[in-house]
Amino acid sequence: MEVALSSVKLARRVTNIRVSPSTAAAQKARDLKAAGRNIVDLTVGEPDFDTPDSIKNVAIEAIRDGDTKYTPVNGTVALRKAIQQDYATRLGIECALDTICVGGGAKQILFLALTATVEKGDEVIIPAPYWVSYPDMVVANGGTPVILRCGEDTGFKLTPQALADAITPATRWVVLNSPSNPTGVAYTAEELKALGEVLGRHPHVLVLCDEIYDRIWYADFPACSIVSVVPELADRALVVNGVSKSYAMTGWRIGYGAGPKDLIDAINKLQSQSSSCPSSISQAAAAAALTGDQATVTETVEVYRERCERAWERLNAIEGLSCVKPDGAFYLYPNCSGVIGKTTPEGKKIESDLDFVIYLLESAGVATIHGAAYGLEPYFRLSTATSKEILEEGCDRIERACKALR
Ligand SMILES: Cc1ncc(COP(=O)(O)O)c(C=O)c1O
């Protein structure tokens, strides 16, 4: 039977959103590689390490023990206890088991939180540069993203004044991603306290704390959550985390959030009508990750730190580029304003960060992602979640490509 090509009429909530630009860039790099091009791929947003064997073994045992059925919608008690313990010991956040929900990745929890709360016309404040998915998640749920430009002058961070100026009666959420994808910068306790003071004056605003990278930490100040420093916000903040990045478990799809009970109940209700629950096997593995020996996390963070420092030094030494030092995560977000206006050896003028990353890809064979995708130009993001050798080669190529510009 031949499958007819059809033109299905899609809902506006889908046609209004984009495919994630980072997924698209990674796909383009894969396509070029498959076509035989020698590409150094620095687009990847996931650890290059394998999930530790100790965690894999727990999952294998879970399968053997028949732990292969639906779990409670909000996650197994074992996993929620592990999350409760982790939030209490690392962040000083005390939460009851029924105020924790577990889903198929932090992404799903963030999406469902918006589905549960955002109505048409509601505004969600998103500091830029932002993780590419936030604006589209808001749009998919009928809301209006309010993008606040947070430039290098404020360390790529939201200031209390900018927050205060952006809040309106229609504001539903403010997103705080620390450490940030794409810049790696993180908020200090003092900065969070100052933002918390503004939020104290606006009780209708919820806080979406995306802390998925908070174990991949290099800064000399401790990781903290706005709820740790302003506990009064606990009844209107959702603290989101997961095992994807810290434990090299992106494919296991486990993320979670802790927040006010009515919000968590709503997320659970949505999950009960969509996926029923996250994978039982992945939940067993995630509980083992959180409660087991953390030595592998410490070791991998050391590796990320070395790579980040090396790439940061190298990029800063290239004429035309400059880069803020990250506090955590595994990305660098160099400023490329010094190459804008220059001309490539092929005679093309670089007018934007998109032109620059296309030039890097086509003439130097290095795949990165342009800053406009993250809402702040002219920058580009590169990931250090790749081997030291590949990273060195990537920096060599970027250096040569920049030198060749006139
Ligand atoms: C800032 C940020 N939040 C959330 C996620 C999603 O993580 P998960 O794999 O748990 O869905 C990512 C993944 O790239 C991310 O960069």
Task: Describe the structure using short key phrases.
406 residues, alpha/beta, Aspartate Aminotransferase, domain 1, Aspartate Aminotransferase, domain 2, 2 domains, seven-stranded mixed β-sheet, 14 helices, 40% helix, 12% strand, binds pyridoxal-5'-phosphate
Low-pLDDT ranges: none
Helix content: 25-40%
Major beta sheet summary: 7 strands, mixed
Taking all Cα atoms into account, the compactness measure Rg is 21 Å
Name of the CATH first level of the largest domain: Alpha Beta
Number of strands: 12
**Cα distance spanning the termini:** 57 Å
* H/E series: HHEHHEHEHEHEHEHEEHHHEHEEEH
Strand percentage, roughly? 5-15%
Query: What ligand species are in this complex?
Result: pyridoxal-5'-phosphate
In round numbers, the mean pLDDT is 96
The CATH homologous superfamily of the largest domain corresponds to: Type I PLP-dependent aspartate aminotransferase-like (Major domain)
Q: Give me the side-by-side strand order of the main sheet.
A: 2-8-7-6-5-3-4
Number of domains: 2
- The dominant shape is globular
Helix- and strand-based class?
alpha/beta
The helix count comes to 14
> Would you identify the CATH architecture of the largest domain?
3-Layer(aba) Sandwich
Remind me, CATH topology of the largest domain? Aspartate Aminotransferase, domain 2
Cofactor: pyridoxal 5'-phosphate
Enzyme class: transferase
InterPro entries: Aminotransferase_I/II_large, AspAT/PAT-like, NHTrfase_class1_PyrdxlP-BS, PyrdxlP-dep_Trfase, PyrdxlP-dep_Trfase_major, PyrdxlP-dep_Trfase_small
GO molecular function: L-aspartate:2-oxoglutarate aminotransferase activity
